[in-house]
Amino acid sequence: MRPQATASVQVDEQQLRSTLWSFDIGAETGWHVHQHDYLVVPASDGELLIDTGTEQLRFPLKVGQSYFRKAGVAHNVINGCDHPIAFVEVELTQTQIAPA
């Protein structure tokens, strides 16, 4: 069993929610589905291990290199490196998964 990453909501407004995610070595978010489009802003360099349920992908984190994903992404995010890492996730709360 892995330790849990720590989520600290910094801003929660009608348009967006900003959360600082902090990962100790080997920590994970747990399985989740993103309900909104989101932007990730790395606060440290490192590597994420992304478990999609069917495969595990390695994804580099680099300060100054943000990335964007659409709502509907389902995964477990794991610290895949040998030091603590962190990023800020900005959810665009006015976007969401379309009803099925």
Task: Summarize the topology.
Blueprint lengths: L5 E7 L3 E8 L8 E2 L3 E6 L3 E6 L4 E6 L5 E3 L4 E6 L5 E8 L8
Characteristics:
single chain; Jelly Rolls; mainly beta; about 100 residues; five-stranded antiparallel beta sheet; four-stranded antiparallel beta sheet; about 0% helix; 9 strands
Give the gist of this structure.
The protein has 100 residues and is mainly beta. The chain is 0% helix and 52% strand. The protein has one domain (6-92): Jelly Rolls, CATH 2.60.120.
Textual characterization of the structure:
- This protein has 100 residues and is an all-beta fold.
- The protein has a single domain (6-92), classed as Sandwich (Jelly Rolls), CATH 2.60.120.10.
- The protein has strands at residues 6-12, 16-23, 32-33, 37-42, 46-51, 56-61, 67-69, 74-79, 85-92.
- It has a 5-stranded antiparallel beta sheet, with no helix packed on it.
- The mean pLDDT is 96.
